[in-house]
Design goal:
Helix content is 87%, strand content 0%. It has 100 residues and is mainly alpha-helical. Helix 2 runs antiparallel to helix 3 and helix 3 packs antiparallel against helix 4. The longest helix has 48 residues. The radius of gyration is 25 Å and the shape is rod-shaped.
Length: 100
Amino acid sequence: MSERTETLKRSLKRDEQKVIKLQEGIKFKKEKLRDLENTEILSSLNSLSARGFPISEIIDAIGDRDTDALTRLMAENELSEKESGTGSASQIIKEATRNE
């Protein structure tokens, strides 16, 4: 084969290796992003749990896309928040449902 053909084949091989390396890097970053997002979600759930929200019911309602149940859970908790003087936990739930 000619020198031009060999040079082009080597160039193509290098480019293919770069693409593979980039794909692996993208896959790693996506996994890291997913892990970070899951960590943030767990942190939010722990915060809600510490404030007395029924986490398993909230997760079930979100999984079922049951906005009525979420609204009921927020209303029930807002009543108890008025009695205890706190209010930030319901804001977290409202923002979470808006982001869904």
